[in-house]
């Protein structure tokens, strides 16, 4: 299709591209070959689409829906890539050719760019409109899809890096002129890339915002926005830090050379300053929104402070700062020892030592800043007491033979050593297997005072399985003010809609995780669909 479109543009413009020593194929040959390939592939495509519809292989749930989303977003990404590439080349041609007195119609790159632009736009529109239709079909699985969010975040990530890089190049070019350096190459391709990247970023940021507003609950929407904010802020901060490190290095080099700033230092200063400004522009806006959110009254502010993405962001930059400082420190110590031991000091250029000192200084600043934010978060979260606390009273129930109760109790003891655990067997076999300690309160008292009750779902209803031998156990569970965490174990003639069968190890692991979330005052998270 691309070949056919390219040849069509060449024919319309009466353009004869130069192929060098190669024998150029005729336009008719290329168009006929492309048309035959399009026809054959279209027949295959429609035939398999017919099979999918007739055999009802598509479904709105489970693996078929996941495979459909993979197909849709894969071709959406391919279409967007072609469209962006063609748009960059077309804008570059416009900026270059329209600035001259005569437009050259034999610009061969324009034909390929036009083909990429048209095909990419068509493919992207078809599959993106279908993806939007699925999302707005009131399907909770589509709205919570990880693949959709991953696609959007990936496009935002790439477009943000593109914008930051292009802003840096353009800024460095202008600063080079200010510093009377050699003029840089033409920035037409950089400016066209900046325009396309900015449009892609703005549009997909808008889509993420709309997705967050359509989320099934407030916290899910807030999580979508937070990931976007931290993603953009992280990219901006990395660029800012790179520029800051270069600035500090220039200052150290200039001081070491008695204030003389050579052309190489002015070159470094131009790039560092441009990266610092571009990174600051991209980092400051989302970071202000992030910090504004954590200052909101509870529970919104507390949820923002203890969100996983915030922890990953802060600890990630702490790790990066620590590794950077250690690497620079190792290099400086090595250079010092080598000099003391008589190794030629020429192996260690002063500029390299200046770079090491600059980035070590920058790492300390990052470590102090993000460490102070993390400590502030911990202080606020400690003052805002969780729903239950670090040492909850947990009652583990078993209404079968005690096997599951033993595994649950052991796993909870390992995961929550400060918790007070009590095991309650609701049948004779369970009581014998769980072997309660001497002096343990009666079952009714345990259920009455427990903070969390965890056990199979059958302990909460008299209508499934064998009735427990412990009189009044079900009523005591229902009457208890404790938070109940129920495990959907398999039971004959009973099925849970939308819940796949769990292995015993998976059930125990999921139950422990849920109990920890309840104890911390968090929402019990379900497994998200792809």
Report on this structure.
The chain is mainly alpha-helical and 530 residues long. Helix content is 68%, strand content 4%. Helix 16 (473-479) links the parallel strand 3 and strand 4. The longest helix has 39 residues, at 218-256. The radius of gyration is 32 Å and the shape is flat. Residues 18-23 have low confidence and may be disordered.
List keywords for this structure.
mainly alpha, four-stranded parallel β-sheet, flat, 17 helices, single chain, 530 residues, 68% helix
Unreliable spans are 18-23
H/E topology pattern = HHHHHHHHHHHHEHEHHEHEH
Structural class by SSE content:
mainly alpha
Measured between the Cα atoms of the first and last residue, the distance is: 32 Å
Overall morphology? flat
Main sheet: which strands, in order across? Answer: 2-1-3-4
The fraction of residues assigned to DSSP E strands is under 5%
Number of strands: 4
Radius of gyration, in Å, reads 32 Å
**Distinct helical segment count:** 17
Helix fraction? 55-70%
Summarize the structure.
The chain is mostly helical and 530 residues long.
Helices and strands in order:
Layout: H1 2-13, H2 27-54, H3 62-97, H4 108-135, H5 140-143, H6 146-178, H7 188-213, H8 218-256, H9 263-294, H10 300-305, H11 308-340, H12 350-383, E1 393-398, H13 403-415, E2 420-425, H14 428-434, H15 443-449, E3 452-456, H16 473-479, E4 483-487, H17 504-519
């Amino acid at each position: 299709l691309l070949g056919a479109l390219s040849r069509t543009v060449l024919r319309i413009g009466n353009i004869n591209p130069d192929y060098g020593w190669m024998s150029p194929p005729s336009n008719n040959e290329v168009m006929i070959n492309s048309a035959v390939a399009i026809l054959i592939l279209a027949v295959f495509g429609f035939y398999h689409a017919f099979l999918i519809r007739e055999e009802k292989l598509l479904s709105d749930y489970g693996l078929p829906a996941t495979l459909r989303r993979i197909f849709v977003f894969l071709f959406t990404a391919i279409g967007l890539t072609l469209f962006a590439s063609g748009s960059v080349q077309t804008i570059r041609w416009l900026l270059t050719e329209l600035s001259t007195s005569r437009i050259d119609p034999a610009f061969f790159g324009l034909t390929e760019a036009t083909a990429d632009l048209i095909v990419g736009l068509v493919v992207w529109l078809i599959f993106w409109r279908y993806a939007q239709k699925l999302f707005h079909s009131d399907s909770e699985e589509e709205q919570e899809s990880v693949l959709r969010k991953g696609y959007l975040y990936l496009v935002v990530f790439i477009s943000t890096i593109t914008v930051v890089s292009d802003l840096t190049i353009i800024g460095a070019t202008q600063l080079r002129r200010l510093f009377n350096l050699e003029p840089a190459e033409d920035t037409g391709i950089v400016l066209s890339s900046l325009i396309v990247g900015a449009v892609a970023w703005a549009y997909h940021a808008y889509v993420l915002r709309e997705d967050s507003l359509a989320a099934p609950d407030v916290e899910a929407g807030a999580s979508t926005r937070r990931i976007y904010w931290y993603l953009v802020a992280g990219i901006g901060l990395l660029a800012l830090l790179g520029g800051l490190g270069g600035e500090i290095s220039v200052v150290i080099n200039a001081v070491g050379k008695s204030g003389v700033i050579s052309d190489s230092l002015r070159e470094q200063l131009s790039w560092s300053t441009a990266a610092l400004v571009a990174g600051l522009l991209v980092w400051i806006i989302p970071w202000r929104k992030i910090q504004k959110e954590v200052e909101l009254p509870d529970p919104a502010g507390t949820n923002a402070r203890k969100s996983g993405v915030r922890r990953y962001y802060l600890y990630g930059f702490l790790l990066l700062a620590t590794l950077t400082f250690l690497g620079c420190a190792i290099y400086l110590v090595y250079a010092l020892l080598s000099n003391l031991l008589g190794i030629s000091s020429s192996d260690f250029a002063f500029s390299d030592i200046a770079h090491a000192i600059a980035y070590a200084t920058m790492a300390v600043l990052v470590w102090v800043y993000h460490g102070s934010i993390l400590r502030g978060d911990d202080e606020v979260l400690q003052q805002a007491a969780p729903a239950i606390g670090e040492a909850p009273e947990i009652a583990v129930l078993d209404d079968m033979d005690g096997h599951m109760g033993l595994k649950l109790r052991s796993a909870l003891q390992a995961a929550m050593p400060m918790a007070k655990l009590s095991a309650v067997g609701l049948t004779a076999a369970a009581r014998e297997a769980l072997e309660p300690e001497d002096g343990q309160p009666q079952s009714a008292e345990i259920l009455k005072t427990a903070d969390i009750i965890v056990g199979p779902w059958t302990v909460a209803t008299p209508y499934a399985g064998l009735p427990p031998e412990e009189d009044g156990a079900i009523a005591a569970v229902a009457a208890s003010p404790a938070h109940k965490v129920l495990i959907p174990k398999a039971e004959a003639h009973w099925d849970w809609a939308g819940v796949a069968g769990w292995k015993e190890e998976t059930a125990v692991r999921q139950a422990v995780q849920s109990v920890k979330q309840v104890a911390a005052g968090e929402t019990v998270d379900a497994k998200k669909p792809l």
